[in-house]
Design a protein that fits this description.
The protein is built from 13 helices and 18 strands. It has helices at 50-57, 107-112, 114-117, 121-143, 183-193, 229-250, 252-257, 262-266, 277-286, 299-306, 361-370, 376-383, 399-407, and strands spanning 15-27, 32-37, 42-47, 63-73, 81-92, 147-148, 154-155, 167-170, 174-178, 195-203, 216-225, 273-276, 313-316, 329-330, 333-337, 339-344, 349-356, 392-398. The radius of gyration is 26 Å and the shape is elongated. Helix 4 packs across helix 6 and helix 4 crosses helix 13 (399-407). The chain binds 4-amino-1,4-dioxobutan-2-aminium adenosine-5'-monophosphate (4AD) and magnesium ion.
Amino acid sequence: MNVLIKDLGNHVDAEVTIRGWMFNKRGSGKIAFLQLRDGSGMTQGVVTEPELLEIVEKMTMETSCKITGTVSQHPKKDDVFELQVTGVEIVHVPEEEYPISKKEHGPDFLLDNRHLWLRSKKQWAIQRVRDCVITAVYDYFHENGFIKIDTPILTPNACEGSTTLFELEYFEDDKVFLSQSGQLYLEAAIMSVGRGFDFGPTFRAEKSKTKRHLTEFWMMDAEAAFVEHEENMEIQENMVVFIVERCLERCKKELEILERDTESLTKIKAPFKRLTYTEAIEDLRSKGSDIKFGEDLGNDDEVTLTQDSDVPVFIHKWPRAIKPFYMKVDPENPELVLNNDLIGTEGSGELIGGSQREDSYEVLKKAIEEEDMEGPEYQWYLDLRKYGSVPHSGFGLGLERMVRFVCGIEHIRETIPFPRMLTRFRP
Ligand code: 4AD
Ligand code: MG
């Protein structure tokens, strides 16, 4: 019977077949230990029969194979099972030596071989955490009255400023851009469905060569009618807590492989800390920074503001001058907007950007004009403020930033199967 490695525990003492790859082999002449993986998990096959040992002799690293054996429980570990091998069928022996070995490889070599590197244990674990985060996002929103709305990727307008747009020719004499965020379209959709979220690839032609930036990344935008600034932050913190709890529950093995300190993840509970931008600037200055009101926060500033906190920190109500046109002006201070960034702990940086949206036709029209963005591409967006405008808010979660945080890994490039960055779009 064919079974998945993850299900071996249900078949103790039975003879089963697993289908996968041999990623390592050890042993002497009389016994061989095959390290096997099939995508669902990893196990060991113990080979002692002489005629099987002869077949196993031909198997090099990454040989694909079907291994039959009797399932036994590890003598010391409850949840570890192995196979006493009774049959070996080779599917394919690598034609050359597998290029990724146990020795240390540099990042460029690994990225050039990303198509193979994905098979490594750590990379396997990261992709599984990624899947868990994606599923948690869907579950959180569906449990909270949001429906999935797919927003377009080819767009005639800019959501997050014109300087980071990827431009494409659209047939003979038109041009379009790759979406930076589905937000504007989601705002239209929630005037129909009330609460919605999208989840898809977004693009930024950002010349940032950091450990937190990709040029193609996946964003989840959420948007809700009749939700205002405070409630918007509550939805964000509840979602982050939900995602982290889900990963702690379902990705124990993966987080162990990644050597993630899960202790700090268990402390991610609501409420998160809230600091206004103004307070954040004062705090930074009191700690010796020369940052001035009106300047954007840098990576070091984000680290300073979160280093003493067990929970992520909201920095909210930023100066209007450095934020996008669509954010609602703070009724208490026209210099500020009702927005927030959510900064993760342990130096993970910005995970979420969100805001209440400007719902006044006149104020929004003026903001669009001030940014020299007038024209038909924004008229439909203004229309939403013309026909039954309501207060509404939303936010965008960067999937790879969240995965990086949950996994506790240094560089964002490992969180996406095939990273696209300033200097890399291959393989
Ligand atoms: O803060 P951002 O730019 O916000 C928006 O795009 C809003 N329209 C979202 C909304 O309100 N619906 O981007 C949202 C998040 C960031 O907080 C960050 O996590 C991630 O997207 N992000 C990136 N991730 C990887 N590489 C990049 N270059 C990123 N730029 C933003
Ligand atoms: Mg942002």
